[in-house]
Amino acid sequence: MEGKEISRAVIKRLPRYYRYLGELLEDGVERISSNELSEKMQVTASQIRQDLNNFGGFGQQGYGYNVQFLYTEIATILGLDRVHNMIIIGAGNLGQALANYVQFEKRGFKVIGLFDVNPVLQGVSVRGISIKMVDELPTFLKDNEVHIATLTLPKNKAPEMAEKLVQCGVKAIWNFAHTDLNLSLPEDVIVENVHLSESLMRLSYNLSNYEKEHK
Ligand code: NAI
User: Fold this and answer.
1) Which of 115, 156, 176, 193 to mutate to test ligand 1, by most ligand atoms within 8 A of the CB atom?
2) Among 3.40.50.150, 2.60.120.560, 1.10.8.60, 1.10.10.10, what is the CATH number of 8-77?
3) In CA terms, which of 9, 61, 76, 108 is 20 to 30 Å from 208?
4) Is the pLDDT confidence value at 152 over 80?
């Protein structure tokens, strides 16, 4: 696996494999063929074989894939084999909802700090984490190892906050503010922009097409 470049398209599909394999494990399934996985995931078996062969061919002819092995390998590739400490900036509706979602922690994404500028929120506890004011951020970042900063604050505040975080050593930003931060930050800063509305627009497009076809 080492030294081999995995294409971005494959990396993009890995979380989905990971999710399905996790479900198989929960159901006690020990091994699965590419054909069975193909039926479940609605992806062609050849696509599955091609994707999974990127990591040294975990499948064996006539045996299929060892679910636990594949699950663990994909977890390692995705960096899910360790704990990522995460902070959330903007403790409003979305920030608090993310902090309240326990499944992230189960995947190793541990929320260790919540920050806001609204004094009314200071000290409010969300799942045991007390909301701090953003002026405490530099000290917090010095005292704690933070791997990921999540931005759930207004769009116009996001670029400035991102720069501040980068200056304090943060290397990865999970950005929900509606602005594409990777265009303004140094190249070595890793940004994942999340726009739920884009997903909704794709749904809307598909719905419109469906309606046209079924008129
Ligand atoms: P909200 O108004 O409930 O929360 C925003 C919070 O940010 C407030 O508590 C506010 O005091 C705080 N804030 C303002 N300036 C700040 C600063 N400089 N530093 C730290 N905190 C600051 O809004 P909501 O609904 O939680 O949305 C948050 C952001 O996420 C908005 O930008 C919204 O457009 C975006 N959003 C993005 C989605 C996506 O799919 N990407 C989906 C939903 C919301």
Assistant:
1) 176
2) 1.10.10.10
3) 9
4) yes
Amino acid letter, residue 210: Y
111 touches 129 (CB < 8 A): yes
The CA 91 to ligand 1 mean position distance, Å, reads: 7
pLDDT for 76 beyond 80: yes
| pLDDT bracket for residue 53 (50, 70, 90) | confident
- CB 89 within 8 Å of CB 150: yes
Q: Is the pTM of this model over 0.85?
A: yes
Report the atom number in ligand 1 closest to the C-alpha of 153.
Answer: 7
The ligand 1 atom at the shortest distance from the C-alpha of residue 89 is: 20
Out of 3.30.930.10, 3.40.50.280, 3.40.50.2000, 3.40.50.720, the CATH code matching 84-198 is: 3.40.50.720
Cα(180)–Cα(87) distance, integer angstroms: 19
